Amino acid sequence: MTTVAFIGLGIMGGPMAANLVKAGFDVVGYNRSPQKIDNLVKAGGRGASSVSEAVKDAEIIITMLPDSPDVEEVALAKDGILANAKPNSLYIDMSTIKPSTAMEIAKQAQEKGFGVLDAPVSGGEQGAIDANLSIMVGGSASDFEKAKPIFEAVGSTIVHVGPSGSGQTVKAANQLIVAGTIELVAEAIVFLEAYGVDTESAVKVLAGGLAGNRILDRKASSMLARQFKPGFRVELHHKDLGILTESARQAQVIIPLGALVSELMASLKANGNGDLDHSALLLGVERLCGRDK
Ligand code: NAD
After folding, report:
1. Beta bridge partners of 115
2. Going by DSSP bridges, is the β-strand pair 121-122/133-138 parallel, antiparallel, or unpaired?
3. Are residues 7 and 138 in the same domain?
4. Predicted structure pTM score
5. Tens digit of pLDDT for each residue in 177-236?
6. How far apart (Å, rounded) are the C-alpha atoms in residues 218 and 251?
7. Is any atom of ligand 1 closer than 6 Å to the C-beta of 4?
8. Does the beta carbon of 99 lie inside 6 Å of ligand 1?
9. Ligand 1 site, residue 234, Cβ cutoff 6 A
């Protein structure tokens, strides 16, 4: 039985770790807030009281943490993964972090003899629960092959996209497209409402034509009802658009619409909407139009 250490048992990591247990892996979990470890134990996993304890006997180590500094700390600190796991084990970071951080961690991990993959996901909490995440994987082909049984236990679309860091680059592009599409759907809704159009009928016909997209399919009805329970929090999408704009700048790639939607997401956070679903970009459009009163 393969032992998998899983660090970061939050909205995404909790159900992903539980699905690994279901698929027959021996899962040892660690999370900073301990009640999340109890949930994994209830699901049939084992708990650890530190990162070092979780990783010491694992063949595979997974992190699912909020941001780049969290992953750096857990991977590189004295009591972290690289200093305490068995050499030759495979380290897979599934968090969304900067491509440059993923590359630096990969370099240090490889120097110590570890296999390493960056494998961020798309599909949200429901995708994590249903084990049908999209997984974009950066790293070597042989490490990708080794990790496949893990990915198949938590995802359904699993693609090796290139060397270390590539998974995170693809994820940044994903977050650009998602944010931009939500913003356009939000602007269309406010425009339609201003003309008193029956928005539900409008969404139906728009979804069937060239304007059709997954945001219209999955989010338009909750947006029309002004329900913004997350889902994916504005705060996290704001982080991801920071990764995108910084990485684009480093590569001298100009992303005018990406930069604009990044500012609009930042404005939501600044207005106290950081804990809402990212479809709350609609509230930002209403504020810009003076229609939020
Ligand atoms: P979350 O905040 O719910 O979970 C993160 C967990 O990590 C928390 O339980 C926290 O206690 C734990 N943690 C933080 N620092 C730690 C440390 N040093 N040691 C141990 N545990 C620590 O976040 P989430 O929504 O599960 O997202 C995780 C990652 O996945 C993020 O990078 C996010 O951008 C990405 N992601 C999220 C979604 C989504 O819909 N929520 C979708 C795709 C990708």
Report:
1. 90
2. antiparallel
3. yes
4. 0.95
5. 999 999 999 999 999 999 999 999 999 999 999 999 999 999 999 999 999 998 899 999
6. 33
7. no
8. no
9. no
